[in-house]
Amino acid sequence: MRIARVLVPLVTMAVVAAACGGTPTSAPTAAAATPTPKPSPVKIKSSYGNVTPSNLAPFMAKELAIFEKYNLDVTLDLIDGGVASSAALVSGQVQVGNFGGTEAMSLYAGGGEAVVVALFVPVTPWQLLAAAMLGGAAYAGPGHPPDTVKLLANGFKPIVDLASQKILATDNCTIVLRSWADKNPQALQAYVDAEIEAIAIAKKDKAKTLPILAKLLKLDMAKPDDASAVTQTYDFYVTGIFPSYPHPLVAPFNASRDALVATNPNVKDLDVSKVIDDKYVADAEKRGVGK
User: Fold this and answer.
1) Which residues contact 50 (CB under 8 A, 6 or more apart)?
2) Please, where in the chain does CATH 3.40.190.10 lie?
3) What pairing do the DSSP bridges indicate for beta strands 127-132 and 114-119?
């Protein structure tokens, strides 16, 4: 019984000591949060078909690292001409091409699987200029900025301005193969988002855009004539031609198809809705990309 009397005070003391801040029991240490690793950028080989203002969207997205913002590692190369650009797309040399809608329709009509996901030049930029020459002769020819800037400065006058008439066209598109789009929808959406954001920046910030446009056109802003040409090209294309959201719609493709029939009868009965897919631009607009 003596042992029991000794144990009771000892137990009581232990309880009191614990309540008064005795040696605490170690709490389990929370595991450190592991940061989610950022996925590796998606590599895309892309091209643009000519040294023309029409290709500002991908060029500016590359120059301003907007593709990188969307976790894309884009290689952007010049492949001169729509036919060569189309061939590069079919062969897998590139995954995304920026060239004309007529080439996309010709490719599809010939059994290819091209699909247009954005249309940046939905109206023709062409003007017909003319001037009286020495001896009473006259010269007339088509053009658009920056090529027409020097002609206008030297007395040429626009006699037909198709651009101001908003004649429907498909002069510059973003084009992929349907099979690649089906396998890489997120990467393609990111590519289109980056292009749309680039045009939004161009419309908002002329000073930032001019040197990039000059680089695309291989002009020198330090030269007064080149600087004037770049400025007028910006005003013509960025302000008057490029849409904020480049929807590839049926109407301009129908117009281009009807004009293309003369040189490619295979497109005569082409259902152009099979060559275009507006869901990427529509999704970007819904999310307010570029605003």
Assistant:
1) 78, 80, 81, 82, 99
2) 42-121+168-287
3) unpaired
CB 45 within 8 A of CB 98: no
The CATH classification number of 42-121+168-287 equals 3.40.190.10
pLDDT tens for 112-142 read 999 999 999 999 998 888 876 555 556 677 8
* Cα–Cα distance for residue pair 180/22, rounded to 1 Å: 68
- Kind and range of the H or E run holding 96: strand 96-99
Long-range pairs, 178-181, Cβ under 8 A, ≥24: 178/113, 178/114, 178/115, 179/113, 180/95, 181/115, 181/117, 181/277
pLDDT in tens, 1-22: 443 433 333 333 333 334 444 4
One-letter amino acid identity for 139?
Y
> CA nearest 237: which of 77, 127, 128?
127
